[in-house]
Design goal:
With 87 residues, the protein is mainly β. Helices cover 7% and strands 43% of the residues. It contains 1 helix and 5 strands.
Length: 87
């Protein structure tokens, strides 16, 4: 579950979908390859939910919100935006 909206930092990373794939024995693992974001200087593959995967198309905006856990390990959550508009 994502943190409350008042914890969302405007400096969090935005990215774009470059590629999408499904993996796993039962095709239950969903991945998006994104353009560089936040601490990632290169393309990076992230795990997403099935519904996020189904919304994503190449060029879709992906908002990535990076947080620190109580134990100090970084974690993130993802919001997949609509496909880019032609025009």
């Amino acid at each position: 579950m994502a943190p409350d909206s008042d914890h969302i930092d405007a400096a969090d990373a935005g990215s774009a979908t470059e590629e999408a794939r499904v993996a796993g024995k039962d095709n239950s693992q969903y991945y998006l390859k994104t353009t560089p974001w936040g601490p990632r200087a290169e393309e990076h593959e992230i795990t997403v939910s099935r519904s996020q995967y189904e919304r994503a198309v190449v060029g879709s905006r992906v908002d990535i919100f990076v947080r620190d856990s109580w134990l100090g390990a970084a974690w993130y959550y993802v919001r997949v935006g609509p496909p880019p508009r032609d025009g």
